[in-house]
Write a structure and sequence with these properties.
Elements lengths: L3 E5 L3 E6 L2 E5 L1 H4 L6 H5 L2 E5 L3 E6 L4 E3 L1 H9 L3 E5 L5 E5 L8 H9 L3 H26 L5 H8 L9 H12 L16 H21 L18 H7 L3 H13 L9 H7 L6 E4 L2 E4 H17 L12
Parallel strand pairs: 1-5, 2-6, 5-7
Antiparallel strand pairs: 2-3, 3-4, 7-8, 9-10
């Protein structure tokens, strides 16, 4: 089942009742000019089991501890935003799988050659998806990227990822001299937001698969709590890039993160992707990817299942 993503950009009081998320809008309740039936409609309920991601983007959103406990038990990713409406924090459950300690051990004890092989697969899939996005939306040559993908070695020792990225970002957007930089000019801001949503979806699925999001196969920044999530997002990033490309060329004012743009980005978990030859919502595909990753750690599989852009 596809889990829902809920966004709260206005003041709200969020609580728990009968395994339901109860949403109350205080601005409506306190409005004395409205009829009572409108005030009654200010309360909305959502089944906890249907929620996959919650985004809190207002300083006046209040959440009860009982609700937070229920969300974490359901493996819901809770994202908090800063004063610029950019995702700043992510909360996940400590335990998401019944055999978690065993799975942790497989992950931690994975050999360095295995990690390098998994990173090789990851970067190859990422470059192939980047090439597919370029081919679909631009007239730029992509044979070079196909060659680079085929030449990725164990651990990406020759850094084909960087070579492909330089070419990809130079040619993707119809914006002169655009470069991918977290602190750079728009639409970098939109990419940052989209990647943050994607990261939360991946981290949530890693926990559900009984893996440590912190312990990566390649990323190993000592200050990064989600190294493995950042590893596994790589082949999925081009799906976000594709979405942002369409935002840019379809007339949105992408200099600011408007509500319309956020609404587009919050659809990332439901984007249509192809994995193992079948169409699937992105969130479901991520679950297949993280499940296959565990099986690689345990020795049941030799290859991670990643999506592709056709």
């Amino acid at each position: 089942m596809i889990k829902k993503t809920l966004y709260f950009g206005n003041p709200a009081y969020l609580s728990l009742r009968n395994a339901q998320l109860v949403i109350k809008l205080p601005e409506v309740v306190k409005n004395d000019t409205l009829p009572e039936h409108f005030k009654h409609d200010a309360e909305v309920t959502k089944p906890i089991e249907d929620i996959g991601v919650i985004v809190l983007d207002n300083k006046q959103v209040t959440m009860t501890s009982g609700l937070l406990e229920a969300l974490l038990e359901n493996n819901t990713a809770v994202i908090t935003c800063d004063s610029k409406s950019m995702p700043a924090g992510l909360m996940l459950p400590l335990c998401g799988n019944t055999t978690q300690s065993e799975r942790f051990r497989y992950q931690i004890e994975a050999s360095q050659p295995l990690r390098k092989q998994l990173w090789q697969q990851t970067i190859k899939a990422k470059i192939e998806n980047q090439a597919a996005v370029l081919k679909r939306y631009t007239k730029k040559e992509t044979r070079c990227m196909t060659v680079w993908a085929s030449e990725v070695k164990s651990g990406d020792s020759e850094n084909m990822e960087a070579r492909a990225a330089a070419y990809y970002w130079k040619n993707l957007f119809p914006i002169e001299y655009f470069t991918r930089d977290r602190n750079g000019v728009p639409p970098n801001n939109i990419l940052n937001y989209g990647y943050a949503i994607l990261r939360a979806v991946v981290a949530r699925s890693l926990v559900a698969s009984g893996l440590l999001p912190t312990f990566g196969i390649h990323h190993h920044n000592r200050y990064n709590a989600y190294c493995l999530a950042d590893d596994i997002t790589e082949p999925y990033r081009p799906f976000v890039d594709e979405l942002v490309y369409n935002i840019v060329v379809n007339g949105f004012d992408f200099n600011d993160l408007s509500k319309d743009i956020k609404s587009e980005l919050l659809a990332i978990p439901t984007l249509d992707v192809v994995i193992a030859g079948k169409r699937s919502p992105l969130m479901v595909a991520v679950a297949q990817t993280t499940a296959s990753l565990y099986k690689c750690f345990s020795g049941e599989l030799r290859k991670i299942s990643y999506p592709e852009i056709l």
